[in-house]
Amino acid sequence: MDTLLHSSFFRKFDLFAELDDRELASIAAVAKVRRYAKDDVIFHADETGDVFCLIKEGQVKVTMISPEGKEIILSMLGPGEFFGEMALLDDAPRSATVVATEPIELVTIYRNDFLQILQENFSITRKVLGELSKRLRNASNRIESLATMDVYGRLARFFLDLAKESGKPLENGYVAVTRPTHQSIANMIGTSRETVSRLIHDLMRQNLLLSEGKTIYLRKSALDQFRAEL
């Protein structure tokens, strides 16, 4: 069921941070919240795209299926991040499948309204383009990693990127990050779950990281070591 939003809600999001009350109200008038359960598919690759999605709560994975039928995770996105803009900008089919990895609430805006918002608010257009550039750079780095690095190097780069994007530095010399499952990491770096589990266990044995539940604590010296090795 769709839910309407108050304009003040949008002040939480960096994407809308530079807008005034009138502009926020115009966006609130066309935006709705949709809720999905864990493992629900938000949309499939090759579908026609007609909606822009901003994550209010929860997390999604952006995936593709290889010719061998193996899932490849392109990215994991959480609160404040958005997806679905490419198909609206180039009028091409969806380039990937997006799946909820936990119960999720999305703010959705349909194509015509989204394009009108971009036309009227250059600050939003600039941030959308900036995010597209960031994702293109990340994709290039992943292609380079798969082509030139062994699996240890790919895992090290994964942890470096994770710490940079969502890590919380602690006073005890560690950086705390919420980790995906071992299978999800494997699907992102092109290896098996067993290999990821073994390498993480080796890093724990070297006291380079600690693991508690869904949180991994990366020693800052380990991140420096990873950078030096890459």
Chain-wise SSE layout:
Layout lengths: L2 E2 L16 H8 L3 E5 L4 E3 L7 E7 L2 E6 L5 E7 L4 E2 L1 H6 L6 E4 L3 E7 H10 L1 H27 L2 H16 L1 E2 L4 E5 L3 H8 L3 H13 L3 E4 L2 E5 H10 L1
Antiparallel strand pairs: 1-2, 2-9, 3-8, 4-7, 4-9, 5-6, 5-8, 10-11, 11-13, 12-13
Please characterize this protein's 3D structure.
The chain contains eight helices and 13 strands. With 230 residues, the protein is α+β, with helices and mostly antiparallel strands. It has a five-stranded antiparallel β-sheet. Helix 5 packs across helix 8. It is globular.
Question: Average pLDDT value?
Answer: 89
Q: Shape, please?
A: globular
Residue share in β-strands: 25-35%
Strand sequence of the main sheet, in spatial order?
Answer: 1-2-9-4-7
Q: Give the structural class.
A: alpha+beta
**How many strands?**
13
Poorly predicted segments:
none
Briefly characterize the structure.
43% of the residues lie in helices and 26% in strands. The chain is an alpha+beta fold and 230 residues long. The radius of gyration is 19 Å and the shape is globular.
